[in-house]
Amino acid sequence: MTTYIIRRLLWVIVLLFFVSFITFMIFYLFPSADPAALRAGRQPNPELVEQIRHQLGLDKPWYVQYVDYMKGVFLHFDLGYSYQNNISVKTQIFQRLPATISLALGAAVVWLVIGIAVGTISAVRRRSLFDRVSMTGALVGISAPVYWLGLLALYLFANDIGRFKIFPGSGSYVPISQDPAKWFTSLIVPWFVLAAAFAAFYARLLRSNLIDVMSEDYIRTARAKGLSERRVVLRHGIRSAITPIVTAAGLDIGILLGGAILTESVFNIPGIGRLAFDSIQNSDLPMIQGTVLFGAFFIVMANLIVDILYAFIDPRVRY
Amino acid sequence: MTSTIDLARESSSEAEVSGIAARTPLELFWRRLKQDRVAMAALVFILLLVAVAVLAPLLVKLTGQRPPNDQSTKFLDEFGTPTGPTSENWFGVDPLGRSVFSRVLYGARVSLEVAIIATAASVAVGVVVGMTAGFFRGFVDTVLSRLIDVLLAFPILLLALGLAAACSLGNGCLGGLIKPGLTVVIFVIAFVNWTYIARIIRGQVLSLREKEFVEAARSLGASNGRIIFREILPNLVAPIIVYSTLVIPQNILFEAALSFLGVGVQPPNPSWGAMLADATEIFDTAWWYMVFPGVALLLTVLAFNLLGDGLQDALNPRVERST
Question: Fewer Cβ atoms within 10 A, N terminus or C terminus of chain A?
Answer without folding.
Answer: C
